[in-house]
Structure formats: structure tokens, C-alpha cells
């Protein structure tokens, strides 16, 4: 799949998107504390071999989700004009890609996580000439995964976990020496469903 093919499918389905974002959305009904708004960026880049998606591995010393694979992004700040700006700002802070270099093309339905965040995933493109500059305080590694690999549902398995004393399922996907799971994998599954609807 190339950029033009992606845009055709994504935009076509955007207007028809009414599916719930996740089973975790039910947590909104049981949360004792207000959900915290956050945003991430599912960043795509066109390579000679096709589209690739940019992911990060969180720094090992972080208090929450240390070492986990994630998308660049973070918590909404009052200084942000919108959640889209949150995603762009956090991407620039974490992996050094300037906001002006990113073309946002849309978003998916928000995902409510077991940790009390209401996360809006944005989708964007960046030119393949852009250089990644990692903030080592937040990110251990930045890597790319062929988008065709992530679109293949056979590369994902379903596992169960206990969160907030309740049993939930999570998708898992192994790519090279990385394990993609939890909210990150769920967002990829949601994008798969959006494109294949």
C-alpha cells in the first residue's frame, strides 16, 4: 500500500466510521476519577518498499509503561489549542520531527485505557527525508514497521490480562525484537478495521 492508496481508503471510510473504539470504552462507566485527555500520532512514511509506521520504545527509567512500545504522544496540556496539537507537540518533543513537517490526515475514535486516559489517535504523514532526533529522557528507541505487516491480522494474537482487578483482553504482535501490545496494538487493530470496513 502506498500513500495515495491509504488516503483513498482512509478518507472513504472516515465518513462512515461509527464503530466503537474498543472494549475498554466500557471503563468510562466504572472509572472513579475523571478520564485524562491524551493524544498520539500514528505516523506513516513512504519508503521504496512501501508505507512504514513509526513507533517508539519508551525509556526504561520512566515511571509508567517503561520499555513498552508506543506511538509518540502524551497528555493534553492546557496550553494546547487542540488534541491534534497535543499529538504534534509530543511527537516533536519525543522524536524531534517538526510539527510543520507533518501532514495530518484524520483521526480514529478515542480509546479509553485501563490507566484512566481517553486517547485520541491521529494519523499523519512525514516525508522520508525527515530525521528522527530522540529525546533519551522519554524514548529508548525509535523504529519502523512495514505497514503491510501491521495490516495483516494474522500477525496479531489475543491475550488476557488483569487491570484494575478486572479481566480484559489485549492484542499482541511481535516484530523483530519488539512486542507491540496493549493500547498501541488496539489502535493498530482499530485502524485495520477502519481501512477494511
TrEMBL record:
Domain Nudix hydrolase: from-to ranges: 34-167
Matching InterPro entries: CoAse, NUDIX_hydrolase-like_dom_sf, NUDIX_hydrolase_dom
TM regions (residue ranges): none
Domain of life where this protein originates: Bacteria
Swiss-Prot/TrEMBL cofactor(s): Mn(2+); Mg(2+)
Keywords: Hydrolase, Magnesium, Manganese, Metal-binding
Entry-linked NCBIfam families: PRK10707.1
Protein name per UniProt: CoA pyrophosphatase
Organism: Psychromonas arctica
